[in-house]
From TrEMBL:
It holds the Pfam family F420_oxidored. Transmembrane segments: none annotated. Keywords: Oxidoreductase. Residues 4-91 form the Pyrroline-5-carboxylate reductase catalytic N-terminal domain. This is NADPH-dependent F420 reductase. It comes from Rhodanobacter geophilus.
Length: 199
């Protein structure tokens, strides 16, 4: 199984640290070329490998850590996303609710990756918390997952566990997924909730 993170800002780098902590290889890419990402990637760890966007989307599992509308450019890099798992770690804070056609933000992103196995996850924690060791207080830090594809959640939950987190499935995008999104300039109930599942 191969992994990539698209977007190498605060959230992308936080996720890269989670992979590096477990000595798991992950490709990283952004609008900038691999050479621009190399110093930060090297500082995080040797398993974090800068790639072009077109190389990174060849991975089996792709984590989106781009600014919200940046997902559209990523979606256009492949004619079909069939066979891929896409994990949406974006947030739509500041995006007018009217621009989302009444849908949860993750459902808008899912439409752009219609052929993919799509899961919302890793988006509710601040980057500095996401970057920290999830083994805390005698337990593991919780990450929430939601998807309209029940079969997609299990593999992403397994990845979260490999990275040291405690995954909790919230159900469909318009149900549990709606609890971990921004609406306009407000955050919904589970955003920033730093919860720990006891060991």
């Amino acid at each position: 199984m191969s992994y990539s993170i698209i977007g190498f800002g605060h959230v992308g780098q936080a996720l890269a640290r989670a992979f590096a902590r477990k000595n798991m290889e992950v490709a990283v890419a952004s609008r900038r070329g691999p050479e621009a990402l190399a110093p930060q990637a090297k500082a995080i760890g040797p398993t974090v490998v800068p790639r072009t966007l077109h190389e990174a989307v060849e991975a089996d599992t792709i984590i989106l850590a781009v600014p919200f509308w940046g997902h559209r450019a990523v979606a256009k890099t492949l004619a079909s996303w069939e066979g891929k798992t896409v994990i949406d770690a974006t947030n739509a804070f500041g995006v007018p609710v009217a621009d989302l056609d009444g849908l949860p933000s993750s459902a808008v992103v899912a439409k752009a990756f219609a052929d993919a196995r799509f899961v919302k996850g890793f988006n509710h924690l601040p980057a500095e918390t996401l970057a920290a060791d999830p083994k805390v207080e005698g337990g593991r830090r919780v990450v929430f997952l939601s998807s309209d594809d029940d079969s997609a959640v299990g593999p992403v939950a397994s990845l979260a566990e490999r990275l040291g987190f405690a995954p909790i499935a919230l159900g469909k995008l318009n149900e549990g997924g709606a609890l971990v999104q921004a609406r306009g300039r407000a955050w919904t109930r589970l955003i920033f909730q730093d919860l720990v599942k006891p060991a």
